[in-house]
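Can't paste images in this forum, so I'm doing it all in text. The chain is below; anyone willing to post the predicted structure tokens underneath?
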Amino acid sequence: MDERQRAINEIQSLVDAETEAWNNLDAEALVALFHPDMVWVWPPDAISHDPESWVMPMGRFNAARWTSDWTRLFDQFALVHNRRNTVRIEVSEQFDGGFAVVDVDTLWVNKQDQSEFHWAGRACKVYVKVDGRWLFIHQTGLLQYR
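Text version of the structure:
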């Protein structure tokens, strides 16, 4: 297997590990995937393509805070389904950076009032290779393109 394909496979394994962490409601497994400089910008809805309106609700990566936030989500909502499909993976010529385009359809239901909380759209997940290990460093929020 060539270096490009190896990098693509490693990035796909990170996408799969993230999916599995969501499926298992495992906040600690999620935070283990992130680069310490991770930032996560988010559009207010799936049709707001202009980043002028985007927000940064989680701030710069902080393992304790992010674990706590996701544990709170898992306590409040039941996961109905988490469907993710990798559309494309691209890596840099140096095989030290890459991104995955992933379609996400994740449905949560509030445990108290049964209201739905739906994540649906396309994300661009950006990865960087640090000391021989791929880490998740950035993601755009979910947007609908179709």
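Residues 3-139 form a domain with the Nuclear Transport Factor 2; Chain: A, fold (CATH 3.10.450.50). The chain has one domain: 3-139.
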